[in-house]
């Protein structure tokens, strides 16, 4: 009796890689939103379902699991609608194409980018020394029009003194977030979605939670200057980068992709 050996084809390898990629992206989104335990629970359920239905071929128990899966898909969409939105945003992001475009344009584009970033860096350093709280959100590919509408329109060139004046303690706009888009200060005093991630350190305040929230729901980069400690932090792609130096801040802003 001939022994049938199944040789993996290129299509099988591609299939495995795509499944691994989707699982990895889902894991990253769930981890950043604090839903990692739910993700692990879903994976365990899927493994049990496959074993019962395909390996052991238990018809009655398998049919029950099949019904639960068909109903559970709708429940998961409702339960994890924010995570699914962020996952689709990540898949649809064209930041790598933008990186290639900037590479082809060469050093001139990098020089212009540094000229736009340095006023932000210098303003953050000055506010850090004076322990002036600030929250600056830099728009990337995902439009922040809805967030911009929650604040006061400014539409001005990026200017160090303007940034510091807006976040001055007696300024009526200092409590909200500043939105920077297309190399211009679009608005200030804006309201951001607050992250409900339970893993956020307790010493981090509302500014940090708002910064993490906008980084989870969009691809924006958020800079936080702590009013209590003067520390400079960044929230990006659902993760914190705390206690940054001037060099680290500049490097992250110029290489945010």
UniProtKB/TrEMBL annotation:
InterPro entries: C-di-AMP_synthase, CdaA, CdaA_N, DisA, DNA_integrity_DisA_N_sf, DNA_integrity_scan_DisA_N. One of its GO terms (biological process) is cAMP biosynthetic process. GO terms for molecular function: adenylate cyclase activity; ATP binding; diadenylate cyclase activity. Residues 81-246 form the DAC domain. It catalyses: 2 ATP = 3',3'-c-di-AMP + 2 diphosphate. Its EC number is 2.7.7.85. HAMAP family: DacA. PANTHER family: DIADENYLATE CYCLASE (PTHR34185). Catalyzes the condensation of 2 ATP molecules into cyclic di-AMP (c-di-AMP), a second messenger used to regulate differing processes in different bacteria. Belongs to the adenylate cyclase family. DacA/CdaA subfamily. This is Diadenylate cyclase.
């Amino acid at each position: 009796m001939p022994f049938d050996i199944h040789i993996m084809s290129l299509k099988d390898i591609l299939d495995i890689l795509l499944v691994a990629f989707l699982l990895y992206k889902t894991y990253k989104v769930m981890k950043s939103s604090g839903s990692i335990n739910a993700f692990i629970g879903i994976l365990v359920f899927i493994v049990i379902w496959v074993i019962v239905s395909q390996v052991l071929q238990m018809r009655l128990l398998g049919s029950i699991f099949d019904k639960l899966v068909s109903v559970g898909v709708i429940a998961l969409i409702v339960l994890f609608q924010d995570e699914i939105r962020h996952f689709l945003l990540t898949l649809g992001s064209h930041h790598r194409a933008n990186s290639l475009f900037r590479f082809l344009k060469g050093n001139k584009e990098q020089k212009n980018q540094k000229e736009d970033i340095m006023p932000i860096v210098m303003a953050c350093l000055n506010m850090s020394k004076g322990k002036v709280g600030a929250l600056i959100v830099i728009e990337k590919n995902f439009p922040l029009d809805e967030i911009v509408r929650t604040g006061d329109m400014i539409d001005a060139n990026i200017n160090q003194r303007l940034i510091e004046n807006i976040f001055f303690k007696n300024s009526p706009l200092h409590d909200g977030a500043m939105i920077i888009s297309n190399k211009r200060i679009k608005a200030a005093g804006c309201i951001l979605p607050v992250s409900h991630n339970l893993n956020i350190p307790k010493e981090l305040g509302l500014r940090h939670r708002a910064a993490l929230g906008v980084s989870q729901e969009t691809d924006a980069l958020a800079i936080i200057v702590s009013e209590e400690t003067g520390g400079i932090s960044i929230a990006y792609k659902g993760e914190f980068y705390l206690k940054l130096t001037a060099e680290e801040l500049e490097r992250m802003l110029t290489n945010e992709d």
